[in-house]
Each structure stands twice: as structure tokens, then as C-alpha cells.
Amino acid sequence: MFETLGSLTASPWIYALVALSIVLDVFLPVLPSGVLVITAAAAAAAAAGTAGPVPVPVPEQVPDILLLLVIATTASVLGDMAAFRLARHGGARLDRAIARSRRLTRAQERLGTALARGGGALVVIARFAPAGRSVVSLGAGKTQRKVGEFLPWSVLAGMAWAGYSVALGYFGTRWLGTQWLGTAVSIVALFAAGALAAFLVRRPPSAAAATPAA
What we know:
9 helices
């Protein structure tokens, strides 16, 4: 798996693939957008020539770390706003579409109440939770929240998620000295953050800190 993903990072199409995956995973949470971002960042770290005491051969074309960060953040916000707009105008048809996805249905049941009470900060936390981004974006649209209320938190959530994912892949590879090991450990850390985020958004109201309304 890592060899296949690694070969993709040597192509200039990696940026388009990362952007498309991030935009669409708000509707299809099974897409490995975080894995793609981490793998691309790990390739950039290996190309920096500091991924260990012994230089390792790297492809001539590798992702630019800053461009990757900008693309991941922008794609995250675009996906959020697409789901937000769709939910505002989707009505019953959207409800039926969500009902056909067991994962989204379960996420709505588990996170719906928490997200309703949580306010803007919870938008950022839920960005890391499995299907949390989908529930937040669609929920904000369905409840007719204003764009000005949702967009700033979406931007902050996208920056936090993209920054965390890029940092994991880049610094994980530099510290561990091997691209495949840095990628693997970083993916585990990404899933761990998702599990923690899911726990935080499902806490009882009495345990949640008060946050401003989104």
C-alpha cells in the first residue's frame, strides 16, 4: 500500500488527487484523504535530505510542503461549503441520501446532539472525528446557519486538520529516518486524534466546556 501511495507522490497529479479526495470525503468519509496528505508530506521530508543520517534516493518530483498545506486547507473548506450549501437546499432528498449511508446515519445519531450544543470550537474538534466533518457541515446547512457563522470555523478547522496531517507526515519522517515508517506511525497518530476527537464531541453536556455559538 505504502509503495503505491509513494509512487503517486512522484507525480504532479498528487496535488489534484489530494484536493479531490479532501473535497469529496465530506460526502464519502471512507476516502483516505488524510493518508494521502501524510504520504505526500512524508515524501517531501525524504526529499529534504534530512530524513536520517544516510541519504536515501528520492524521486525528482516531490510535493512542495507549503503548497500541499495550502491545497489541503483550501480543499477542506471548499468541501465543507459544498456540503453546507447542499444541505441548505437539499431538503427531503438529502435526508434520504444520508439515510442510505449507515456510517453517516450512525454519526448523526452519535454526534448530532453534541454538535448542536457545542458551538464553533466543536466544528474544529469534529473535523478530526470519523464522519464528524460531514455531520457538522450538513447539520449547519440543514439548520439554516448563516455563512458568516459557519465559514470562519470551517477555515480554522481546515487549517488545524491540514496542519496536523502535514506536520505528522513531514516531521514523523524526519525524526524516524525512514519514509515508510514515518508514514505508518503518522497514520496511526492521525487515527488516534480521530478517536480522541470522537470522544470529546460525545461527552455529556455537563463535561463539555462552554463555547461560543457557531
